[in-house]
Each structure stands twice: as C-alpha cells, then as structure tokens.
Amino acid sequence: MTKTLTKGPYKADHVGSFLRPERIKEARVLKQNGKITSQQLREIEDEEIIRLVEKQKEVGLTAVTDGEFRRAWWHFDFLSELVGVELYETEAGIQFNGVQTKAHGVKVVGKLDFHDHPMIEDYVFLHRAAGDHVAKFTIPSPNMLFFRGRIEETAYSNQDDFFDDVIKVYQKAIQAFYDAGCRYLQLDDTAWAVFFSDQGKEQIAAKGYSPEELLERFTSAINESIAHKPEDMVITMHICRGNFKSSYTASGGYDNASEFIFGKLKVDGLFLEFDDERSGGFEPIQHVNRDDLQIVLGLITSKFGDLEHPETIKERIREASKYVPLDQICLSPQCGFSSTEEGNLLTEEQQWAKIKHVVSIADEVWK
C-alpha cells in the first residue's frame, strides 16, 4: 500500500474532473430540450456520481471527487452562481491550440457576495457518497473571476474594491464548505499561466498591471481568501495551462513566478503540470521554503491514453527530489480528464488506466 498522509494532498492524488458518462451527456441534452426536469437530471447525476466514487475507491484513491459531473465548465458554473455574477453569450469561444470552446463567459454586474450557492448541496451529496474516504471538492480560484470575468463599470469602477469583495466572497465560501463537512478543497487557477510566456505579458499589460504588480495581486488574493480557514481544512491549488479536448492555451516554465508560487503562497499543496516540455524543468521548485507544503507533480498526462513508462516517471520524481524532499512530493495526472463537459480525447478505460498508473507508481516510490 502507498504510504499515506493523514491529510491531503495524498501520495497518489488527482486533480478532480472525469470524463462525463454518455448517460449524463444525453440527459443534459434532454433537459435543454425540455424533455426531462431539473430534478430528473439531478437524479441521473446522483446515480453516476455514486458509481464514479465507487470506482475511485476501487482503483485505490484516498480522496474522491464528484468528477465535476454536474458542471459544463470547471469555472463558470461556480462563478456564475455567485451573487452579482451572470453567465452570458460571448462573440466567440476561448481559443485553444487549434480548437475553440463554446461562446460563454461570466460578467460581474453587481456587488459580489456568497449566498445559497448550489455547490454546497453538491458537496453534501459527495460527502455522503464518499463514506470513509476523503471527499475532495474543486472550485475556481478567486483570481479567475478577475482573469476570465468581464467587470462592468457600474458594478466596480475600482479594482481594489473588486478584489476586496472577491476575498470576502471566498472567505464566506470556504467557511460554508467547511460547515458542510469539507476538509479538502482545491482552488483551480489558469491565471498564473500569464507569467509563463511572452504572450502572457501582453495579457498582463492589457489588464493594466506590470508582472510584479499582478504577481503581488494574485498572491494576496489567494492568501487573504484562505487566511481564516479552519486548522483542520486542507486547501490546495492546481495551476493549469489550459485543458480542453486534449489541447491547451499556454506554454512556459514556472520560472517567472516561482518565488511567489513556491515561496509566498500559503496553500497546503500545489498541483503542478509537468507532463511535457511545455512546463519547463523542476528548478523553480527550489523556492519552496516550507516543510509543510506538498508538491504534487502532474507527470501523468490526462490528455492522451498512452501510458508513460513507470521508470521514466520514477526518474523524474527522483530529479524533482533534488530540489524538494521526497516526503513533500506527491504524484497525480497533470490535469483533470474533462475540464469542460466535452472531455479530453481518450476513453474511460484509458482514463482509469491512468489513475491506476498513478496509484501503482506511488505505491512503489513511497513504500
């Protein structure tokens, strides 16, 4: 058995989303066409989530998720249910490397707040289904509302006021999830990728910041949002370069943001993409300056079905351990399998082979 940690992230862990079963995809279409009710859709989701949770237990994971089965997007579904935020149709989808998402976005139209959010109920269902396993829940980070949202002038004319309210919203959200039983919460964040490439520099300038100013802003937003989290609650962050139909939006190593990501963020763990050359080397993690920060290496790709050679993965873990002690390192896929409802280009069988691969390699590395 894999050496276990008393709290997440675990030596064999995962980012969160799983391929949507055809039954859920079909049910969502029926719901959109008025053929079934919201309650009927939810009952189908319930059944498929229970099946998913049991499968995660079967393959050896300690923490289980609901696969984000109730969501169309990894971020918009959560953000659009915040008070003061709306989902809307955009002129075009988000451009990935050769593919484009649906034309959806979120906009801030009023003062932000967190109240009666439907994902609290989603967590409660997962918590019950998890039983004696750890129920892990994922939400977008506070930076995503700024990075992916359109902030109406009538709502916030001042970015300081906007961030102050975003932080208050997340403090409320974290407490609400905790009160519902959540002890393992993950913040998903693609905004950090703007610091990794030359293209990102243009996006930073378009937001009216210098790289240093935005690094400070992002770090502060995360740290202040989690500042009052209960002692027995784990909050991790997944830093992503985009994940849609096995494609991506950004490339580049962590170097330009490494001192902030690894030395200043106060999360309990970092899920990091390291599945190919787009992510750069392990040198940036030398900025880790805490012995209680877990570094989760996303060395197993979730984008394609071919299995990585176990010895190659073990060698990469050994390489990373030159910069961070082995007992602070964990293993996972580099991202979820279905950040949007469309999913990546692999089969469910290949998906589970990937998860089993993570568990098997972790068993051997941390005996």
UniProtKB/TrEMBL annotation:
Annotated Cobalamin-independent methionine synthase MetE C-terminal/archaeal domain residues: 15-341
Coiled-coil intervals, chain numbering: none
Top EC category: transferase
UniProt keyword annotations, A-Z: Methyltransferase, Transferase
Transmembrane as UniProt keyword: no
Annotated Pfam families: Meth_synt_2
GO biological processes: methylation
InterPro entries: Met_Synth_C/arc, UROD/MetE-like_sf
Gene Ontology MF, one: 5-methyltetrahydropteroyltriglutamate-homocysteine S-methyltransferase activity
Domain of life the protein comes from: Bacteria
Enzyme Commission numbers on file: 2.1.1.14
PANTHER family: METHIONINE SYNTHASE
UniProt name for this protein: 5-methyltetrahydropteroyltriglutamate--homocysteine S-methyltransferase
Organism name: Fictibacillus terranigra
